[in-house]
């Protein structure tokens, strides 16, 4: 496994391999790898000749009150896991390498950020989009892999790729779940025993909402949203942050239930905020 700390080094490596006809799968991360990251690496490994993993804690996406310095880092462990899962190259640049001087231009995301988690994180997705665009420019991958646990991020990146006519495919990778359906998350360890027993109901409610949408009654958007929020409130002791049904990847409030839809929720327990979502295609589901 190769490790590169500079843009010029990894570009030379990529150029050599592309001249030899190799395809490249790219997995961008901020490190502190977990099972979700590893599933992205495994998917990239299956579908490409070479896999590049980036590890870079991006200061641009941290807002006020979000401590960039305290973000967990463990490069030694990350490197070991990457090698075990067949990564061919790690790109691990410094902040000065990625931002050698003040940026004269950055990406501003105009749509899809005033809903879900973006409501309380102004500027976050601008920082995400800017660094991902830089990483795409550096690594020039054929495919890039993102987990659907953060569906809003996937939507922002997919639309950016389309808007700027980038020549790569964004691969959506499914959310990893425990046997009882709870979405895997590092935050799950902060759940009390009672909360952990209850939390799988989040996914249960998502699936019940899917059944309502695809059922024979043909409900309105408002009826589905009411069902979702009422079920969450009834089934969970957690505070419901949001329960939304949005078009995907535009993340707009739909006038009718058609096409690709995101059903997304966020709830707050005593020491953990959990998010989860599913995507359904109404047209296909009713065939």
UniProtKB/TrEMBL annotation:
<feature type="binding site">
    <location>
        <begin position="147"/>
        <end position="150"/>
    </location>
    <ligand>
        <name>ATP</name>
    </ligand>
</feature>
<protein>
    <recommendedName>
        <fullName>Pantothenate synthetase</fullName>
        <ecNumber>6.3.2.1</ecNumber>
    </recommendedName>
</protein>
<feature type="binding site">
    <location>
        <position position="61"/>
    </location>
    <ligand>
        <name>beta-alanine</name>
    </ligand>
</feature>
<comment type="function">
    <text>Catalyzes the condensation of pantoate with beta-alanine in an ATP-dependent reaction via a pantoyl-adenylate intermediate.</text>
</comment>
<comment type="similarity">
    <text>Belongs to the pantothenate synthetase family.</text>
</comment>
<dbReference type="InterPro" id="IPR004821">
    <property type="entry name" value="Cyt_trans-like"/>
</dbReference>
<feature type="binding site">
    <location>
        <position position="153"/>
    </location>
    <ligand>
        <name>(R)-pantoate</name>
    </ligand>
</feature>
<keyword id="KW-0963">Cytoplasm</keyword>
<dbReference type="Pfam" id="PF02569">
    <property type="entry name" value="Pantoate_ligase"/>
</dbReference>
<dbReference type="InterPro" id="IPR014729">
    <property type="entry name" value="Rossmann-like_a/b/a_fold"/>
</dbReference>
<comment type="subunit">
    <text>Homodimer.</text>
</comment>
<keyword id="KW-0436">Ligase</keyword>
<feature type="binding site">
    <location>
        <begin position="30"/>
        <end position="37"/>
    </location>
    <ligand>
        <name>ATP</name>
    </ligand>
</feature>
<keyword id="KW-0067">ATP-binding</keyword>
<dbReference type="InterPro" id="IPR042176">
    <property type="entry name" value="Pantoate_ligase_C"/>
</dbReference>
<feature type="active site" description="Proton donor">
    <location>
        <position position="37"/>
    </location>
</feature>
<dbReference type="InterPro" id="IPR003721">
    <property type="entry name" value="Pantoate_ligase"/>
</dbReference>
<feature type="binding site">
    <location>
        <position position="61"/>
    </location>
    <ligand>
        <name>(R)-pantoate</name>
    </ligand>
</feature>
<dbReference type="GO" id="GO:0016874">
    <property type="term" value="F:ligase activity"/>
</dbReference>
<feature type="binding site">
    <location>
        <position position="176"/>
    </location>
    <ligand>
        <name>ATP</name>
    </ligand>
</feature>
<feature type="binding site">
    <location>
        <begin position="184"/>
        <end position="187"/>
    </location>
    <ligand>
        <name>ATP</name>
    </ligand>
</feature>
<comment type="pathway">
    <text>Cofactor biosynthesis; (R)-pantothenate biosynthesis; (R)-pantothenate from (R)-pantoate and beta-alanine: step 1/1.</text>
</comment>
<keyword id="KW-0547">Nucleotide-binding</keyword>
<keyword id="KW-0566">Pantothenate biosynthesis</keyword>
């Amino acid at each position: 496994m190769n490790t590169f700390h500079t843009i010029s080094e990894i570009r030379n490596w990529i150029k050599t391999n592309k001249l030899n006809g190799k395809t490249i799968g790219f997995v961008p991360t901020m490190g502190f790898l977990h099972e979700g990251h590893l599933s992205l690496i495994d998917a990239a490994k299956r579908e490409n000749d070479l896999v590049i993993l980036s590890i870079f804690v991006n200061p641009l996406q941290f807002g006020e009150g979000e401590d960039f310095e305290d973000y967990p880092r463990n490069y030694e462990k990350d490197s070991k896991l990457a090698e075990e899962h067949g990564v061919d190259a790690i790109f691990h640049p410094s902040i000065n390498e990625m931002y050698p001087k003040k940026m004269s231009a950055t990406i501003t995301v105009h749509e899809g950020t005033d809903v879900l988690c973006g409501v309380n994180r102004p500027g976050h997705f601008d920082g995400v989009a800017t660094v991902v665009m830089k990483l795409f420019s550096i690594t020039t991958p054929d495919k890039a892999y993102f987990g659907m646990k953060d569906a809003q991020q996937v939507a922002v990146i997919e639309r950016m790729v389309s808007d700027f006519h980038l020549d790569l495919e964004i691969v959506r990778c499914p959310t990893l779940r425990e046997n009882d359906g709870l979405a895997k998350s590092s935050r799950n360890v902060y759940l009390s025993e009672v909360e952990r027993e209850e939390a799988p109901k989040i996914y249960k409610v998502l699936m019940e909402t899917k059944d309502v949408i695809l059922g024979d009654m043909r409900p309105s958007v408002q009826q589905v949203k009411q069902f979702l929020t009422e079920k969450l409130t009834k089934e969970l002791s957690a505070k419901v942050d949001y329960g939304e049904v949005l078009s995907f990847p535009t993340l707009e409030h739909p006038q009718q239930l058609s096409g690709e839809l995101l059903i997304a929720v966020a709830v707050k327990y005593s020491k953990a905020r959990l998010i989860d979502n599913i995507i359904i295609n109404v047209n296909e589901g009713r065939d």
